[in-house]
Structures are given as C-alpha cells and as structure tokens.
Amino acid sequence: MRWVLLLFTLLATACTGAATETSTTVEPSTSAATTLASTTTAEVATTSSTSTTTTPVATVAVAAEDGIPAELASAVGALLSYAADDRNPVPAAPASLIEHLAQGDIPSRMDLNEINSATIADGSVVAVATTETDDVILAVDVGAGWQVVGAHLADGIPWYGDEPHMVLILGSDARPGQDPLRFHSDSIHVVTALPAQEAGSILGWPRDSFVPTPYGEMKITALMVGRGPEATRDQFRDYWDLPVSGYIVTGFRGFERLVGELGSVLIDIPRALPTQKWFAGFSSGEQRLNPVRALDYVRTRKGVPGGDLTRSSNQGVMMLAVLRMLQLNGIETVPDLLIALTEHTSTDLTAIQLLQLGASAFMLDPDSIENQVLPGSLGRAANNASVIFLDAEADDTVADLRDDGLLTPTVP
C-alpha cells in the first residue's frame, strides 16, 4: 500500500534501505572535479560533427568515467543528442518516446548534472538522470544493457510511459508469518496516473462487493484466497474491462515497514473514528501517525458510518498523504524508493513499469486527484453472508475510469 504509494504510490519516498546503489554527480567541464564518498564528479562535453547539411549536427557526449557505467552514459547521451538534433541516430528507447521527442523544437542540451541508480529486488538496475537545465531521463538495465524508458525535457511535457498508468493496489489481511498473496484482499483500489496532465485518480472497491467471477459469485475480497493476486487482476481486466498494468500487494507487516521508511505520515483525517477492540480511535484533523497507528487507521471500520465504504475512502486519504510526503523529495530519489517498494511488497510490474510509475508520482497534483469508492448497499447472499451489492451507478463510475483513467469530481 505504500504506493499506496508509493503511489502512488505507489507509495515511494527517500529511503535508506540496504541495497546496491550508486549516486553519480556530473559537473560542467568548467567546474573542479570533486569526489565524495558515493558521489563522483565527471565531465560532460557538448560537441558537433559535420553532416551533409551546412549546419553541423549537435551532439551531447556524456563522459563515462569515475564510476559512471559506460553504457548508461552512452544511452543518456544518445537520447539528449537526438533531442537536440533529430539528425542524430535514433536512440534505444520506446517508439512512443521517440515520437514524443520529435513533436517539439528542442534546443541543444546542457550539462548532465546527476545520475542516481539502484538495484531493486529482482536484480534490475533503475536510474534517473537529471541535467542542469532540469531535464529528467529514466533508464533501466534488466541484464541486457541500458535502455532509456522515459524523459521529461525542460519546458516540455513528460513522457513516462503510455498513459494512463493504471495499477491494482491490494492490501492483504495476512498476519506476520502468513503469505500475503494467498489471503483476503481487504483493501482494493485501482490507482491511475497521467503525468502529462498532472492528474490521477483513486477508485476503491468495498471488500465485500458481491460479484460474478470465473469461480462463481463471491465477495471480491475472497478472490485472492488460494488463487493469488493474478485472479483478482484478471477479474479487473476481464469483468470490468480496466487496462490495469498489474498489481502491488502488501500485508500488515509490509505496510508498517513501508510507512517506517517515511518515519511517520502527516495526514489530515477528515472524520473522527471510534475506538476499536484492539486499538484506540482517531480524532479528526492534521496529525502524524507512526507505522502502527497508520495501519490502525486504514483498518478501522467497525462503528464507522458507511462501514467498509468509509474505510476504503480513508485508505485513499492515506495514499494521498503518502504522495504528498514523497513529493517533498526530488524525482532523483525514485530508484531508492523502488528498493523499499520491491522489498516490502509483491508485484507483477516490470522494472520499467515501476520506474515509470514512480517518476509519474512526482508529476501529480494531490489536490486534484479524485478519491472515490464504488457505491453499494448492504445485503445478504444466498448463504446468508453479509455482502455489498454494488449500485447501478457503480457501472457508470467504472466506465468513467475506463474512458480516460480519470474520475468525474463528485458533487459535494
């Protein structure tokens, strides 16, 4: 849920978790070279080569020295060169990114400022490079060499993957020692990010929503039990026709550890919550929650008007609080954030998708993100189990999300 986070995260912040990581700073050629413990200064030179036209082809060369991986420097330089002058060779990058770069009149690039990279749980290396003119370049090495997978050039529109990014965030009720992937999904949200519009959305499903599945009618929370998150992901793709890229799952302990990476969460609680059997309630208003209390907050539903619908909305409030805290750090911290995310959650997202999603989180305006829950009413299933029957309006809300990844603001 840190992307719950980390989502927006996704759920991501500047972390200090143990992992392989490098931080490389590159100064202009006119600056003195300075070497610190994990920071290496190198030189970036801008050169020109003669072409068949009367105007030289402008290129940007990134010096591969003092710890900068040669292939990474070459990939970044190729992207910057093509952005400066499309007579340069087309770099190894997604076709949509190349088309995006070709849409505008991009001036010559300046000096590379910093490259931060980190090895995440699956062994992939992710990197964010920035320039002195505030360009951002995303790159990934999954074992076959470096590839540029996203860019935001100064004064331009970011391209961090095809939009909208749509991810299924699942909070498992597995206790410590249990497998989070084989228990109930008590927290169920589809989170979207559209960095080019600085927009996104959070749509929650009540855990007791009674829906048709390939395994018969059941509560949506039970779909993951014994089947894994793939069954829940496929339900969203096939039944609701939502183009979710994949899932991120965490349990109680994983959630606490993710919040622990932040230290605490500053959150504005919209409504007071009553004391539960095992923990105290919450007053309304702005306050800081430690990892244990953050988990208490997103779990509370008994005695709450609206029950699980209100709890699902409160979980969205927590996601937005985490997003605001993440944005206090620079986008260059994304590789570090993905270390924590991949250590404390399970996901079927690729390293490329995770890096693009993490970078997208820094482009969103939390105040414009709609946090909604599908409407429904309490009822009884054939076996007399207490369930929630989704209202007819729920279909319209899902269709609204499916249309462009955004939700129409609710009327107060």
Commentary on this structure:
It is a single chain. With 412 residues, this protein is of the alpha+beta class. The chain has two domains: 6-13 and 163-404, LCP protein (Aminopeptidase), CATH 3.40.630; 21-152, no CATH class. Helices cover 26% and strands 27% of the residues. It is built from nine helices and 22 strands. The chain has helices spanning 70-84, 95-101, 229-238, 252-262, 291-299, 307-326, 334-344, 351-361, 392-404; strands spanning 6-7, 9-10, 21-25, 27-28, 43-49, 57-62, 112-119, 125-131, 136-141, 146-152, 165-172, 185-194, 199-204, 210-211, 218-219, 246-250, 265-269, 285-289, 346-347, 370-373, 376-380, 386-390. The strands form seven sheets. A six-stranded mixed beta sheet has the order 19-16-11-12-13-20, with helices on both faces. It has a five-stranded antiparallel beta sheet with strand order 3-7-8-9-10, with helices on both faces. Strand 7 and strand 8 (125-131) form a beta hairpin. The longest helix has 20 residues, at 307-326. It is elongated, with a radius of gyration of 23 Å. The two termini are 27 Å apart.
